[in-house]
Amino acid sequence: MPPVRKRPRSYDPVRTRAAVLAQFGSVREAVQALGPAELALPTRLGQWTVRELAAHMALVAESVVRGIERPEPAKAEVSLLEWPSATAAYAGPIDEDPREPASAGQLGELYTRTASRLAGALADTPGHRLVPTRLGAMRLEDFLVTRAVELTVHTDDLNDAAGLSVPHDRQALAACTRLLADALAAKAPGGSVEVRVPPYAVVQCVEGPRHTRGTPPNVVETDPLTWIRLATGRTEWAEAVDAARVSASGERADLAALLPVLG
Fold it and tell me: What is the model's pLDDT at position 93?
């Protein structure tokens, strides 16, 4: 089990770039194999169909290219750790983003074009470059971590809706798990509860007595995908506990009131 975080986490920019490209590549392969009937299936995201979800995922990747193409902002405005909570204010506008194209062929063309543009943009742009985003200017290397989170979360949505098994890139899954765990610790600072998501993350959170050695009195443990579903509101806390997908011991180990952490 990795050590509990005490300082802001850093992410390897080379691995993050590779993870975003790999995850989008896996989604592209799966989406381009879907037919009209599969694209029309409902998802767990309100009124979105699989087609609309797939189009949104292309926009997630395209946002990197658009950010790089725009003039560089003067200073950073949003840190990586601030991003999860900041997204809550934009859940509505994001839901209203254009979700065309309408046909499977247009969707395939969109993915091919976006994959090429994304690879080209990332090949020539340093990670410290500031890019404008919906939430404010961020460093490119931080923005790419958020893209890894979005692609990981929506890959799980896509698998759920279309009965697919699109693989999760290990580095993308790790980045998503860690950022959402750190967001929980930032939302409820403290040391009375230890949240474990092996093999990627361990954080302490919630005010109260802090343990100094041995097994802490309040422990939550789950797997990465269950944690991601909890942290994004796809799964309710009680549902996950009842299904034994979460182990929670101790009187302070109920995290229901703190979830989700990603708006």
Answer: 47
